[in-house]
Write a structure and sequence with these properties.
single chain, MetI-like fold, flat
Length: 350
């Protein structure tokens, strides 16, 4: 790109005009003046003006970096609007009496204090941790076992891969209702006409089974990718040296796919924490707990995500629901960072 007099003049003009249009559109939106179409048009034109001004900015040294920023802008802008801004606003709303439409006052930590005094919420956290611990272990074991099966020399491995992955393509709500029918009308004949969903402990077990059935095939595909990257000459050399299949598995394959293990454990951890649709479709959180923190609970199978949803939507308490969501974010972020750090450290040691 050659620097010329036209770029020196046009670039600041476009950027200045773009900034003015952006400020004007935002001011009109907050003030409630002007139509939505006019405000939106001004916003888009302002963004285009700023980006065009940056592209024509008279510099040779930094022009490539400017072009990279322009091409990344749609993704960065979308991430800002859909993640960063809602996160910041949500944290702010958790300290108010927000109703989902408006707020009238700041209540400080009142929502957090009420939240921690609620036995049903504490119970939801407890069973969510149990659910996550069991699923993180079981899904990875099942997924890895299926991956070993589908990378063996047996016939029909392509069919088995597709069959095991198929449940992951079914939406969680639909999957939950399908298994609800199975538990209440098919398997009930094997359990003395007592549905597994009718009792709190067995209902939680049923949710775990359905979740493993749904997610195991997805984790299997990731493990298959890792196993196929293990060099065959290393395995052949071990076989020549007399290594047994179990030694090849635990001494060669598992250490060499530690990066894959890290990815799979991270995915199962975060996905299990955010479990919502299967929980709602199977039990909708119902289940009796006779005595917990001195209270009788009727939400014995309600996990954390469903508890937050019911607080905000069913009970129309958006501020407290947002406070729970903030705590949920902190818990998930801390545990995920710890898990990834521990897995990466193990990779280095191996």
């Amino acid at each position: 790109m050659k620097i010329n007099i036209g770029n020196k003049i046009l670039s600041p003009v476009l950027m200045a005009a773009g900034v003015i249009l952006l400020i004007a559109s935002l001011a009109m939106d907050f003030a409630g003046t002007g139509s939505n179409s006019a405000t939106g048009t001004m916003l888009v034109l302002g963004i285009i003006g700023v980006l065009a001004g940056l592209y024509l900015f008279p510099t040779l040294k930094h022009h490539r970096a400017i072009v990279y920023v322009i091409f990344l802008f749609p993704l960065l802008f979308t991430f800002l609007v859909t993640v960063i801004i809602p996160l910041v606003l949500g944290i702010g709303y958790s300290f108010t009496d927000w109703t989902g439409i408006k707020m009238t006052k700041v209540v400080g930590f009142a929502n957090y204090q009420t939240m921690f005094k609620d036995p049903s919420f504490i119970w939801s956290i407890l069973i969510t941790f149990i659910f996550v611990a069991v699923n993180m272990i079981m899904i990875n074991v099942v997924g890895f076992a299926l991956a070993l099966l589908c990378t063996s020399k047996m016939r029909g491995t392509g069919f088995f891969r597709a069959a095991y992955f198929l449940p992951n393509l079914i939406g969680g709500i639909v999957l939950g209702y399908i298994w609800q029918f199975v538990f209440s009308n098919v398997l009930i004949k094997l359990t003395n006409n007592i549905s597994l969903l009718s009792r709190t402990n067995t209902a939680l077990f049923a949710i775990i089974v359905v979740y493993i059935w749904q997610y195991g095939g997805y984790i299997m595909l990731i493990y298959i990718t890792g196993l196929t990257q293990v060099p065959m000459d290393v395995i052949e050399a071990a076989e020549i040296d007399g290594a047994t299949p179990s030694q090849i598995l635990f001494k060669i394959k598992v250490p060499m796919i530690q990066s894959t293990v890290t990815i799979c454990t991270f995915l199962t951890l975060t996905s299990a924490f955010k479990q919502f649709d299967v929980n709602m479709a199977l039990t909708n959180g119902q289940g009796s707990v006779a005595n917990f923190m001195g209270s009788y609970l009727s939400n014995g199978t309600m996990m954390l995500a469903l508890n937050i949803y019911n607080t905000a939507i069913a009970k129309n308490n958006y501020a407290q629901g947002q406070a729970k969501a903030v705590l949920f974010f902190i818990i998930l972020a801390c545990i995920s960072l710890i898990q990834v750090r521990m897995s990466n450290k193990k990779e280095v040691e191996l």
